[in-house]
């Protein structure tokens, strides 16, 4: 098990930096790999449902499971980025709120799919499900984007400060006068 710990820690250190909490590394990577797995399983189940007799109870059950698994997988991958990057409390709260919206949409999906998915009266289940899920997904994507931009800017600032420090130390150690330059020419 310690081999995995060292590998995760090394990857985190190489691409992100020094971790604040070691727990964030495991939660972040766990969410990432779980989200990827859930998304792939959901996609495969959805493809498998096309082999079944259209409209049969098994067809709808497999399709519902595929949608639920896919609905949970995508926000998990996006949330993992926010957990892995060293971001502020507000970014994590916004990302968590978006994830809760996605989970609420998943609960609505389970309630309305397939028989109340589309109806002719009022607002049907598909509108509610997709609206709530889209709201959550946009929120998670926005917080993930903010986390990535903040991390990029932090790394760019750190590298430019170190480059300026190197340049200033070089200029302090090498003071060349105009006469020296003229004599070299």
Judged by helices, strands and strand pairing, the structural class is: mainly alpha
**Mean of the pLDDT scores?**
85
Succession of helices and strands: HHHHHH
State the separation between the terminal residues, measured CA to CA.
64 Å
Gyration radius, rounded? 25 Å
- Strand-residue proportion: under 5%
Count of DSSP E strands? 0
Instruction: Give the fraction of residues assigned to helices.
Output: over 70%
Count of domains: 1
Runs in which pLDDT lies below 50 for 5 or more consecutive residues are: none
Number of helices: 6
Describe the structure.
This protein has one domain. It is 81% helix and 0% strand. It has six helices and no strands. The termini are far apart. It has helices at residues 2-15, 22-49, 57-84, 89-112, 125-173, 178-184. With 185 residues, the protein is an all-alpha fold. The mean pLDDT is 85. Residues 158-185 are annotated as: Disordered. Keywords: Membrane, Transmembrane, Transmembrane helix. InterPro entries: CdpA_N.
Which tags fit this structure?
185 residues, mainly alpha
Short summary:
This protein has helices spanning 2-15, 22-49, 57-84, 89-112, 125-173, 178-184.
């Amino acid at each position: 098990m310690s081999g995995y710990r060292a590998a995760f820690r090394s990857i985190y250190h190489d691409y992100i930096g020094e971790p604040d909490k070691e727990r964030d590394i495991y939660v972040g990577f766990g969410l990432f790999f779980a989200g990827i797995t859930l998304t792939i399983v959901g996609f495969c189940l959805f493809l498998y449902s096309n082999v079944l007799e259209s409209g049969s109870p098994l067809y709808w059950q497999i399709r519902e499971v595929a949608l639920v698994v896919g609905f949970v997988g995508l926000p998990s991958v996006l949330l993992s980025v926010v957990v892995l990057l060293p971001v502020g409390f507000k970014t994590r709260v916004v990302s968590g709120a978006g994830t809760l919206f996605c989970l609420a949409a998943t609960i609505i999906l389970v309630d309305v799919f397939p028989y109340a998915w589309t109806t002719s009266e009022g607002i049907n289940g598909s509108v509610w499900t997709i609206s709530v899920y889209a709201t959550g997904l946009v929120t998670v994507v926005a917080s993930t984007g903010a986390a990535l931009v903040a991390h990029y800017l932090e790394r760019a600032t750190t590298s430019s400060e170190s480059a300026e420090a190197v340049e200033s130390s070089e200029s302090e150690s090498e003071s060349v006068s105009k006469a020296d330059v003229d004599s070299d020419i």
